[in-house]
Write a structure and sequence with these properties.
The protein has 11 helices and 6 strands. It is an alpha/beta fold. The chain has a 6-stranded parallel β-sheet with strand order 2-1-3-4-5-6, sandwiched between helices. β3 (about 185-190), α7 (about 195-210) and β4 (about 215-220) form a beta-alpha-beta unit. α2 (about 25-35) crosses α3 (about 40-70), α3 crosses α4 and α6 packs across α7 (about 195-210). It is globular, with a radius of gyration of 21 Å.
Length: about 325
Amino acid sequence: MTTNSDPGCTAGRINALLLPAVQCLALPLYWLIGSRLLGLGPVAAAGFAAIAPFATHTAVLGIGFVVSYHNQHALPGHRHGPKRDWLYAFFREAGVSIRQFYWLMPFRAQFHLPDPIVPSGLPPIVLVHGYGCNRGLWLPAARWFSRRGYPVRAVNLVPVHGSIDDYAPFIAQVIDQVKADTGAGRVALIGHSMGGLVARAYLRHCSRTRRDPSLAALITLGTPHRGTHIACLGRGTNARQMRFGADWIVSLVRHEYEAGWPAADTALRDRITTISSLQDNIVSRPLEQRLRASRSIVVRRQGHMSLATSPRVFAVIDRLLRRVAARLAREAP
């Protein structure tokens, strides 16, 4: 199945172009800093201006890692992972995020993939991005899974700064379309960061409308299931909903508790997995990434954005989905 562009791709791409545009506008300022303050010649100042945007981006990432390291709420001497893991995660995240924010999301959001062999016996995958991103984020993942026989669909969430609840009916439409295109009875939903909360909002939407969620599996990557304090720096309704202890988070948890989900639904609970990193520089505290009554997998040396591009993480997801496919095949009449 080809990952065709979804309505709203233009809005997501325009949003993704903001950061590169701001950095381009700042190039004359960087050149002046190099030539006037640092005393560089014209050629050297131009080189400084070309490197400065990426150096600034990396420096901001570094601040995030420092804050995350000191925000673990662990006992003294028992931080989550040795310092070398944090350094490895930082340098990896720098390369990954620069590629994502300056190339994939601004310029590759309309990527297409060749149709895999259908039926392949593997569940179709719907990829849901997080806050401030678009489907271009998923290009490495979409290629990786498509090459292994998975039908893949990556979506754009619009409006960019809308309510998380408003994305749920769209996810329902996408799942229905994927099922119609592939003939599959169930779909694997993979959400990165806010995308995991969108998936939970979709499940609440299904509960309220008495709809079968048709999930083969739900896998979240670096999702702030309990909210995160860094969301205070974001703008828009969805950023406010993701704040730690926000009313929206509380209402979502309350609904799940009152509905007995997922603890009372053994079949659904066994299909839900949260994957988080000990070195996540955005959703920094381990308690923010917990989801009640679900399988939890913790990885090392991965920053927040790296979780969505890491072949190691993809391999973990692949093993999970192949087990799900085998179980569904056994359960089929």
